[in-house]
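Hi everyone,

Forwarding the result from last night's run.
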Amino acid sequence: MVHSFRILLVGLVEPTVSGLMAQFQQAGYCPEYQIQPDASVLLQDWDVALVEGQVALAVLQVATRPVVILAIPGSVVQAVAVMKAGAIDYLTSTENLVPTVCQALTQPTRGFFGHEHPEAALRQSTAQLKKIFESLPDLYFRLSTDGTILGYQGGLEARLYTPPEQFLGRPLNQVLPVEVAQLLEQAIAQVVQTRSLVKIEYSLLVQGALGNFEARLLPLLEDQLIVVIRDITADHHKELERTHAEAKYRSIFENAMEGMFQTTAQGGYLSANPALARMYSYTSVEQLMQAVTDLGQQLYVNPEHRADFIRLMERQSEVTGFETQARCRDGRIIWIAENVRAVRDEQGQLLYYEGTVEDITQRKQAEAALRESEERYRILAEHATDMISRHALSGPFLYASPACLKLLGYTPEELINTTPNQFFHPEDLYLIETMRSIMLSTIPSTTTITFDYRARHKSGEYIWFETTSQGVPDDSGMVQEIIAVSRNINQRKQTEVALRQSEERTRALLDAIPDIILRYRVDGTMLDFKTCHPSLNAQPAWFESLSELDLPAVVKDQLLTALQLAGVTGELQTYEYQLTQSDGLHSYEARVIHCNLDEAVCIIRDISDRVAALAQREALEVAELRMQELQKLSRLKDDFLSTVSHELRTPMTNMRMVIRMLRSSPSEAKLQTYLQILDAECDRETNLINDLLDLQRLEETTKFLTPVLIELTTWLPELLLPFQERVRANQQTLALQFASVPPITSDRPSLERILVELVNNACKYTPQGAAMQIKVHCPTETLIAIQVINQGPTIPPEDLTRIFEKFYRIPNADPWQQGGTGLGLALVKRLTAQLQGTITVQSEAEEIIFTLTLPRELGAPPPQ
């Protein structure tokens, strides 16, 4: 028996509908596809969209139709939801579809939710449907096919474009903007024509904010349809963000400096960026992707490297810094470094490789050049006649070239990790250490220093070496090791000694010739000489040009002018000049004649006999100067007698007065005071007499000196200890400052007497609360300078010139009223001269500076 029934299919596509119809027919049924909602049974495709399924389910529940849900694929969550909503069954396949529909057809004709009376069921279903609509996030409208809004359901009226009373019963084109209304009218026409779901999107200004919306239109009755409106503003923004992110990524991909790609495991390109195409000399990405279909055979210079790369990717899925050579389209071979990862699906199957490529050709070339340079350096070091060595900062050898065997007698292995100091001559250690310190402290650290020294050969013999050293800096600029190049200069040193001896013999020979014959270039450069004469005030062997002669500027100008005129005119040039010699004033005649090209000969003759009268006149002037000196001595004598008489009489007067007071039987306290006065005045008399005697002995004889090594950095602080209490009592400050001072060899008692007198003067003439300083430094390698500086009134220039005279004291310059004999600085002057030193004084800006300059070694030749 063939059963016929009407079935309403919602949301099913045409292939599914045809398949279902065929199954019912095979089962003996004659189904009729019913467009109207009064079908015997509803078959709903839930998977079309959850909201559509709920809407269709709710509508047909009101009509109390049996419902079967078909969802392919489906889920447990969906099954629970639809069964709770009142579905007869929930199917995830069409296998049991026919029995399920038959069961739905045999349901009693009572209300779907079990109500005996259809009116009650209708009211209950309507209430439930309203609650469903209010809980859903969408808006639901029922429209006629001409666009008139017939009904509305939704939970939030705030989401409406206008209130319900302003749009119910009115057509769309009177409620919405023209563009939106026209778009919806076109969709309505499409639904009427196709009787299927239509989706559209549009923008609308709601409550002052522009939003994006999706409208889904479903046929309901012959002349009605349902419109479901969903706010997709957030989704739209996310889509825009995704689009912007993709655009940004695409921009990075297209404009990156390094190559980017995606390839198959077989070696074909899926994508590439322009940088990669340019790297391989292709004009475009398309040309690259069309031309290269097998990376291993077409791009890799060594195809085996591609196989190595594939094995690495299979083992670890990511490769960083894979280096190989690639062949470009123009035939060039470049080095590349690849960073690649494998992209797989959820099942772990390889989809493709993606990564970046960097052209490292320049780096590889630099590395090759570095290796070549190092090889050249190694060959140079191995075959150089000079010894090339590397040293740690503390000195030990890190490397020594084979030349060390010939120069020092040691193999490189014997020198490694040894300290060079053990080979240096003891007298050269200080020089070498000083040079090393200078090099390490010099900025920049690449400064080169060259010095000579003696090194001990393995045989025990000392050999002269010249070493050029340079620091090797690290990335921060600090020296990390030292490079040195050393050579044997024994022969050069012997030649220098021979040259000095030859010069001495030549000088002795020329000293015996009274006249001077010199050969010059016309620019003043001396080429040769025949004799030497005291009139030069210098030895010709020690100068090369006219500017180095120790002659007055006028004489030099005359000689240079004569040389130039002789060169230009070729005529004899004669001029006269005068020089003062040890035996008086001499007159000279110079004759200059041009001899060849740019050379001239100068003959100098003493013509002092012609100017004898001038010599006599100068003798008279000398006599007059001596008379002035005698007058000065007479004044000094008068000053001496005046000062001594005063200095002797004042203490005697004070002592006589104290003696008289003692005769009056004073109290014990006064007695002690009187005794202190007597003691102080006796000391004053004793100091005066001692100063006079010391000064007299220094003037008559030379004091016997005992040079000893004095470590100033430890000796000076001890010397100044007695002054500390006096400084504190006067509320003064005394500072001592050193600047890399080596030991000094001098006479300790004399140096102590000088410094005590200078510091005592500083304390005496420094006001309360003022500062004193003692600075010690080395102005040259052979000199030590000690400065005693104190704050106080500026000394007038006329007093500075007399400050070292005997018995001279600066008026009104003693703030402490301690008095003095005026002999202290005179003694300092004499003692300084005996120590082969000098002492100067300067005063400006309320500061007085005494500078004592001494040789580092007493007895050494004084500096020129």
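The radius of gyration is 58 Å.

Cheers,
N.
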